[in-house]
Amino acid sequence: MTTILYMVIPCYNEELVIDETSKRLKEKYSQLIENEKISPKSRIVYVNDGSKDKTWEKIQEKHHEDSVFSGINLSRNRGHQNALLAGLMTVKELCDCAISMDADLQDDIDTIDAMIEKFEDEACDIVYGVRDNRDTDTVFKRRTAGAFYKTMELLGSQSIPNHADFRLMSRRALEGLSQFPEENLFLRGLVPLVGYKSAVVYYKRGERFAGESKYPLKRMLSFAVDGITSTSATPMRFILWIGFFFFIFAIIGAIYIVGRHFIGAPDVSGWASTMIAIIGFGGLNLLAVGIIGEYIGKIFIEVKHRPRYIIEEFINQEENKG
Ligand code: UDP
Ligand code: MG
Q1: Distance from the CA of 106 to the center of ligand 2, in angstroms?
Q2: pLDDT score, position 322
Q3: Is residue 87 in contact with ligand 1, taking CB distance under 6 Å?
Q4: From residue 298, how far is each of 66, 168, 184 by CA, in Å?
Q5: What is this structure's pTM?
Q6: What is the 3-state secondary structure (H, E, C) of 41-78?
Q7: Which tens digits make up the pLDDT trace of 235-291?
Q8: How is it placed in the membrane, per its record (predicted)?
Q9: Helices 111-121 and 18-34, interaxial angle, to 10°?
Q10: Atom number of ligand 1 nearest to Cα 220
Q11: Is residue 215 in contact with ligand 1, taking CB distance under 6 Å?
Q12: How close is the Cα of 213 to the center of ligand 2, in Å?
């Protein structure tokens, strides 16, 4: 029995890259099937995340040309993480393992062999693709990404540095992932919590093949904030400690001031220090309220428990024609 592999590829306005990605993946699949690494029942599943261009038409076209290509059409744009989850949850009962990958060929397709090997020969349930260079990113993206992973680490999050969403998961790991009900999805912080035996494979991240990045600065920043606040409560704990520190400080200050009064020292001046205290504490309060607000907002969204995605259509040829 050879492995049934499903690739899951979220696509948002990717009409320019689907042809090339399909061609490259098809070659890889033919080769893997020939070497009996994967079963001919394996599929390549594109998840159309409410694209505004011809992406879905392109996916349907691919599916009709060749049954190795399948497609999931979401009812609207839900963002990369939700689209990915929609794909993984849809295929989890059909496959032995699934590999998630971006549509733009930035993840190296040749790494798939190493991932399958870890899955088959070493019985790993999760294989993380980790990039060993960031040469193709701008200096800015490299710096900000570096700072982000450092922060995540300091905050005690379990995420794997330089691993994006290129990974293999076994069927039971997907089953595990399906038990996490959260709305604030940050898959790379969540998957390590699933557990099981895991491994890392390294690859060189290439340039986007065509089209442009769907993560402009604004989206990148909010993704980072979401990533931190949905996997770690440390920023709130941090506020608690700052508050505690200033409280002790204030008590000591109060004792000092009252003491001075009884000694009879002149207590006229002190305007500057008063102002500094007011402004300083004002700022600190706003910061604290802001961070707490971020978490309360998250709770608000979790409590409503809205569906994370809605699937409009799933086109898949399950039986094996090959
Ligand atoms: N993507 C998506 N929904 C979105 C935004 C992006 O499904 O709302 C997909 C996109 O089509 C691509 C992947 O997520 O396959 C990663 O996006 P992109 O390559 O633009 O991000 P970058 O590599 O620049 O971080
Ligand atoms: Mg990309």
Answers
A1: 6
A2: 45
A3: no
A4: 42, 29, 7
A5: 0.78
A6: CCEEEEEECCCCCCHHHHHHHHHHHCCCEEEEEECCCC
A7: 888 888 888 888 788 788 878 878 877 887 776 677 777 877 887 788 788 888 888
A8: Multi-pass membrane protein
A9: 40
A10: 25
A11: yes
A12: 6
**By percentage, how much of the chain surpasses pLDDT 90?**
47
The residues, ordered by sequence, that sit 6+ positions from 186 with a Cβ below 8 Å of its Cβ are: 81, 226, 227, 230, 231
Q: Is it the case that residue 303 has pLDDT exceeding 90?
A: no
CA distance 177 to 221: 25
Q: Do 119 and 127 form a contact (C-beta atoms < 8 A)?
A: yes
Tokens in use for 104? Answer: 């733009």
Residue appearing with tokens 């549509």: 103
Between residues 93 and 282, the one the model is more confident about: 93
With a 6 Å cutoff on the Cβ, whether 86 touches ligand 1 is no
Cβ–ligand 1 distance for 244 under 6 Å, the answer no
H or E stretch covering 127: strand 126-131
Quote the pLDDT of residue 268: 65
Our CA angle for 244, 247, 250, nearest 5°, is 155
Residue nearest to atom 2 of ligand 1 (CA): 80
Whether the CB of 80 sits within 6 Å of ligand 1: yes
Model pLDDT for residues 166-199, shown as the tens digit of each residue = 999 999 999 999 999 888 888 888 899 998 999 9
**Using a 6 Å cutoff on CB, does residue 131 contact ligand 1?**
no
Q: What is the mean pLDDT of the chain?
A: 87
Banded model confidence at residue 134, pLDDT cuts 50, 70, 90? low
CA-nearest residue, atom 1 of ligand 1? 80
Ligand 1 nearest-atom number relative to CA 12: 11
Rounded to whole angstroms, the Cα distance separating 241 from 244 reads 5
How far, in Å, are 81, 219, 222 from residue 227 at the CA level?
Answer: 11, 12, 8
Nearest ligand, measured from the Cα of 103: 1
For 113, phi then psi, to 5°, come to -55, -50
Whether the CB-CB separation of 26 and 65 falls below 8 Å is answered with: no
